[in-house]
Amino acid sequence: MKIVVLGAGVAGVASAWYFWRDGHEVTVLERNEGVALETSFANGGQLSYSYVAPLASPSVIPKIPPWLLRRDSPLRFTPAADLEQWRWILEFLAACNAKTADDTTQRLLRLAFYSRSLMHELVGANAMDFGYVQNGKLVVHTERPSFESARRLMEYQRTLGAEQEALDARRCVEIEPALEDMAPRIAGAIYTPSEDAGDCYKFCNELKRLMTSGPNPVRYRFGVEIQRLLAWHGKLMGVETSHGVLEGDAYVLALGTNAPHLLKALGIRVPVYPLKGYSLSLPIRDERGAPRISVTDYKRKVVYARLGNELRVAGMADLSGRSAVIDVERVGQLAAEARAAFPRASDFGSLGPWCGMRPATPRGTPVLGGTPFANLWLNVGHGALGFTLALATGRILADLAAGKAPALALDGFQLH
């Protein structure tokens, strides 16, 4: 088949990879001049296969008022004259119940474990350079009630196949000495030795290299604006772009936060709204002062991952409209968090600031699968888990479009 993939972020590139592996003729359309130049460019770098609990949960409700009142809160809300923003918020609040959170966690864990097996298969079969490490992850809690809640979640996730361990502050420092400065604040941590890390931008470029160096190479068309999806009698006939109309047998839409606009013209609504996140890429000054295990500060919603000679620091979530403009105040807050947690890791003279628009759904699950149009497939709404879930969602889309049964059931992921 002739496959047209719309979008060259990590979800689009992973989709293209599996279609290409299956022998299809693949074209990828992207408005930027390369792959992974928007939300996938400088994300947190953690591959969090076992820690996928959604933001929407009962525990988040009491946190919302203080978050709204603080300029440095992990989640910041700026009201906009945007009906979709308010609709997303109402759907998010409706999802903040125990049953929905448990169902979402269960579904995301299945998807993440599948993605982990695909990642291990991929890196085992191909020489790839993207700073990949199997280094484990520590989710650090600085408040006792939060840690006790995490222990209960750990027990629930253990029934679903997650292998995790609860640690005290002393044990945290034993396995990650760089946490010594943070130790007085640590109430406990959840350790997951099976987690990985890597550079998402480099990963996408490595996949592109593999796809364009072999037989029947994937064709990437950069600098192409997608203007309209041309539908007729229940199928797409083509994609209207700034470079003319492109036709294919099947179309995979992996456009992140830009998906709702294109789909709205077809009468399709996907509940995707941007949550702006930030990151820093800090040159490592002191090897012993920078963590080798990935670390997440649960209270502050900040993640740390060593990527080669840099420490990637990422966090914050701004529900503040659709503008991907860096807020200098937020960058300063993130730098202050990093300096407090790992003061010896860097001299903090070069920050490498970045922001990206995470394509979030209210429940936290991506939207995968078919649409009312027989040859249009969706791979959108990964939120902060794009890198973690991309291989699984790409494999599933390639199977669905070819008429094969996917490895996982799609209940909870399909378009309503």
Task: Lay out the secondary structure.
Blueprint: E1 2-6, H1 10-21, E2 25-30, E3 46-47, H2 64-69, E4 75-77, H3 83-94, H4 98-125, E5 137-141, H5 144-158, E6 165-167, H6 169-175, E7 188-192, E8 196-197, H7 200-213, E9 219-222, E10 226-232, E11 235-241, E12 244-246, E13 250-253, H8 259-264, E14 273-283, E15 294-297, E16 302-307, E17 310-319, H9 328-341, E18 354-360, E19 367-370, E20 376-380, H10 386-401
Parallel strand pairs: 1-2, 1-13, 2-9, 4-17, 5-15, 13-20
Antiparallel strand pairs: 3-8, 5-7, 6-7, 10-11, 11-12, 14-17, 14-18, 15-16, 16-17, 19-20
Helix pairs in contact: 1-7, 1-10, 4-10
Brief overview:
By secondary structure, this protein is of the alpha/beta class. It has helices at residues 10-21, 64-69, 83-94, 98-125, 144-158, 169-175, 200-213, 259-264, 328-341, 386-401, and strands spanning 2-6, 25-30, 46-47, 75-77, 137-141, 165-167, 188-192, 196-197, 219-222, 226-232, 235-241, 244-246, 250-253, 273-283, 294-297, 302-307, 310-319, 354-360, 367-370, 376-380. The two termini are 27 Å apart.
